[in-house]
User: Which sequence fits this backbone?
């Protein structure tokens, strides 16, 4: 269904964004993370999508649910700690009304983390996602991005939300790219 | 004037706008007063009525009215910052301020003491902020604001309490969702 040009970038953020956009995802909210800085910069510059930052992830889930009810295809860009802020909204709004939200989630606390306090939520997040009924797909490297295509197609067809987890390895391993935001 | 009377005045003044209704008794009252496919009844996720309404407004051009309560807005106060940032012209947030958490037994809420949501809305960058105290002011104010570019925040000051025998909403979440989505579809 993609009408966008083939992916040519070695930049993980650009590769990820092009994959997501190729599925017609056209409405985004974000809460910052150092790993996601470049994705958010790309978002801010894309005049083809509706986008706003939000103060807290839970608020963002409400905004995205509204967007889906009005016919759009929504996604949130957030750190894994943010998942802890949205569990009730996921269960009683998103799952209850069968609203497919694509969650692009940086995985702090994964291998390479320097801040010890990020590790407990990093360890817990996948289990919390699964316990709250959201399929979790880890994407360890840009070469695994086909998993994003398959996951988004599944989510839109089933009207279920899906989370993609991007650990440090996803952002660091591209041969020609060294992220500045850390 | 209680929330029920205030809501009756608001719903009487509304035309074909899309309406997002707050969790609990407020949705039940609106269902009883004026059920329509353009109403989205939020059965869970306390605090997110204003956010859902904002998303609907950002996603399409029709006017959207989000009906919320003072306790719910206090639970998700960042919503005012986002409304003040995005400033959608087709959005009105109505805060029924009865200084209490009505659906859980009318426990005292923050606006009973020091919280002034009108001031938070203004401080968040919303220019059109109106507070009404009398029942007769509500319908003319809603009618006027709906004709002007938003975003608007309308705070309706009420007494706590509700009528007996309102009853639950007899349709389920998927039906609420599907008929709202059909009503919100462009064209």
Assistant:
């Amino acid at each position: 269904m993609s009408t966008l040009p083939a992916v040519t970038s070695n930049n993980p953020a650009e590769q990820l964004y092009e994959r997501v956009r190729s599925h017609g995802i056209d409405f985004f909210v974000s809460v910052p993370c150092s790993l996601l800085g470049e994705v958010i910069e790309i978002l801010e510059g894309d005049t083809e999508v509706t986008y706003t930052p939000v103060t807290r992830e839970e608020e963002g889930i409400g905004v995205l649910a509204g967007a889906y009810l009005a016919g759009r295809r929504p996604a949130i860009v957030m750190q894994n700690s943010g998942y802890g802020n949205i569990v009730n909204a996921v269960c009683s709004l998103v799952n209850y009304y069968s609203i497919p939200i694509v969650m692009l989630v940086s995985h702090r606390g994964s291998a390479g983390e320097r801040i010890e306090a990020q590790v407990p939520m990093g360890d817990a997040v996948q289990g919390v996602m699964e316990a709250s009924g959201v399929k979790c797909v880890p994407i360890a490297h840009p070469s695994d991005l086909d998993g994003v295509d398959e996951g988004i197609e599944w989510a839109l067809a089933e009207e279920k939300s899906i989370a993609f987890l991007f650990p440090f390895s996803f952002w660091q391993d591209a041969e020609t790219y060294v992220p500045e935001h850390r | 004037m209680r929330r029920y009377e205030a809501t009756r005045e608001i719903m009487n003044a509304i035309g074909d706008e899309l309406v997002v209704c707050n969790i609990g008794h407020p949705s039940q009252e609106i269902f009883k007063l004026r059920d329509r496919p353009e109403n989205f009844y939020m059965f869970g996720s306390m605090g997110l009525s204003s956010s859902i309404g904002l998303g609907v407004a950002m996603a399409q051009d029709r006017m959207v009215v989000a009906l919320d309560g003072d306790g719910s807005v206090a639970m998700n106060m960042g919503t005012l910052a986002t409304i003040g940032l995005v400033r959608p012209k087709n959005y009105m947030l109505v805060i029924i301020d009865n200084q209490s958490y009505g659906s859980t037994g009318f426990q005292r809420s923050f606006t009973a003491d020091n919280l002034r949501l009108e001031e938070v809305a203004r401080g968040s960058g919303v220019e059109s902020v109106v507070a009404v105290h009398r029942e007769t002011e509500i319908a003319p104010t809603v009618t006027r604001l709906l004709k002007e570019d938003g975003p608007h925040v309308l705070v309706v000051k009420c007494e706590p309490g509700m009528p007996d025998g309102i009853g639950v909403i007899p349709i389920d979440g998927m039906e609420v969702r599907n008929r709202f989505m059909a009503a919100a579809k462009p064209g």
